[in-house]
């Protein structure tokens, strides 16, 4: 059995602790990063990295990379204006979302259930391996996203839409720079 370094229960605790903090001035995001760095000082750098534009599955937002390894990643993702699209389908990765602010509505693409689910601040949802969902991320929604499994298999989905559909080369370049910083930090530990 693979040992993971990040614990979803700890991430849920951090998300619940920052619910209600203001988005203006970055207080909510900065406090979430501080708490994560306190829980995982060898993994997460408390100094803020830059935001990078991301488009995957039609979902357009801003992402801040916090940790990346071959088996796990954690980012903060959101949109000030809202967005919607496809979650992706990952056969080798489980994706957890811990909502910090806003609302995310989703539905399972293959189930017979015709009613979606709503994620509210402080709540947690998990996209199991091999499943796919339709998502509406409401304006002002921000979440911790934690992936566990064969993380490299998520990169094509994360980059192809940005690169080939949006032709947004600068965001891909910035993402590569941020990934490189995280890998270097990990190698120096």
UniProtKB/TrEMBL annotation:
Family annotation (InterPro entries): ERG2_sigma1_rcpt-like
Alphabetically ordered keywords of this record: Endoplasmic reticulum, Membrane, Transmembrane, Transmembrane helix
Record flagged with keyword Endoplasmic reticulum: yes
Pfam short name (any one): ERG2_Sigma1R
Intracellular or extracellular location(s): Endoplasmic reticulum membrane
Chief location bin: endoplasmic reticulum
Name of the protein in question: Isomerase
Origin species: Mycolicibacterium pulveris (Mycobacterium pulveris)
